[in-house]
Specification:
Elements (H helix, E strand, L loop, with lengths): L1 H20 L29 E4 L2 E3 L6 H10 L7 E2 L4 E2 L9 H8 L5 H10 L18 H4 L2 H14 L3
Helix pairs in contact: 2-6, 4-6
């Protein structure tokens, strides 16, 4: 419990530093590609973009682990801004992650949901959800999270997002 209590302030401090040190700097547009999947062709095997590998562990097409993604969500302070039932969070500064990503991905040229979630984390101003404004979400997560952490976070959000 003490470990978890220490992670929130660290995540928030990282957000605050990244948020305030990036003020006034220009941003660039980045294209985010979610890792492609391949599957052997078989008449008796079905494939999907999310598969459960063990209780509480879900992988996305980017290869993320939902259980590990919850830890990234918690340590990065995501719950202080976002409502997300699987995380037990009720923040209202950013979009509700229970339903928002699916709605916004459809509005953003029917973008694939995993790619949309990844882009929303790494380039949060690329698409702004209705009712919110640019600059609310820190732009530092694309560089402060490792590829594995990012994929795990995407898998966690995917695991609880309702379409």
């Amino acid at each position: 419990m003490l470990f978890a209590a220490l992670l929130f302030p660290i995540g928030f401090a990282g957000w605050a530093v990244g948020h305030y040190t990036s003020l006034g700097k220009s941003s660039s547009v980045r294209t985010v590609t979610v890792g492609a999947t391949s599957a052997a062709t078989s008449t008796s095997q079905a494939t999907s973009t999310a598969a459960t590998t063990s209780p509480g562990t879900t992988t996305s097409s980017g290869g993320g682990n939902a259980a590990a993604g919850k830890a990234v969500f918690d340590s990065s302070g995501c719950g202080s801004c976002h409502t997300f039932q699987p995380a037990g969070s009720s923040g209202t500064i950013g979009p509700n992650l229970d339903t928002g990503p699916a709605e916004s991905a459809k509005a953003d040229h029917n973008m694939a949901l995993p790619a949309f979630i990844k882009e929303s984390i790494t380039d949060p101003d690329a698409y702004i959800a209705k009712g919110f404004s640019k600059g609310l979400m820190p732009k530092t997560f694309g560089s402060s999270l490792s590829k594995t952490q990012l994929n795990d976070l995407v898998a966690f959000i995917l695991s609880g997002t309702k379409s």
